[in-house]
Amino acid sequence: MEVIVDEDLTWEVNREDSMWSLVPGEHIHVNLEKVQERWWEAVLISEEHISVRKIDPSRPITDLDDQAQAKIEEMMFNEEQKRLGLPQSHEKKVHDMLKDAWDSEGSPFRGQPFDPSKINVAPDGGSTINYPST
């Protein structure tokens, strides 16, 4: 057996999730799972290091998984809503929950038309309720 690489890696990898495969006569494919998500200046300690600041990390959104694409779309939506002075997605969710609870059993607002001005929602998620006069 011939040792091809016998050197330390620049950063730690997860050995259980790293693997290699051999394509006979062509190449060895090595997949290293990083322990820490970061750009590497080099794979091996002895290699010449590159400047990670010069790397263009952008990639088409279609290359990302569905969950990542949805998160980016939500962030873009929220940024646009913020720019326009409109409620962001998390604020809309709170609004929808309040609207659902408005007419629920035990609500002091039961039977009244929904009026969000009676509830002040703070940016941290806390709220103040202006109870109706009795």
TrEMBL record:
GO terms for cellular component: cytoplasm. GO terms for molecular function: unfolded protein binding. SUPFAM superfamilies: HSP20-like chaperones (SSF49764). GO terms for biological process: protein folding. InterPro entries: HSP20-like_chaperone (IPR008978), NudC_fam (IPR037898). Residues 104-134 are annotated as: Disordered. PANTHER family: NUCLEAR MOVEMENT PROTEIN NUDC, NUDC DOMAIN-CONTAINING PROTEIN 3. This is CS domain-containing protein. The lineage of its organism: Eukaryota, Metazoa, Spiralia, Lophotrochozoa, Annelida.
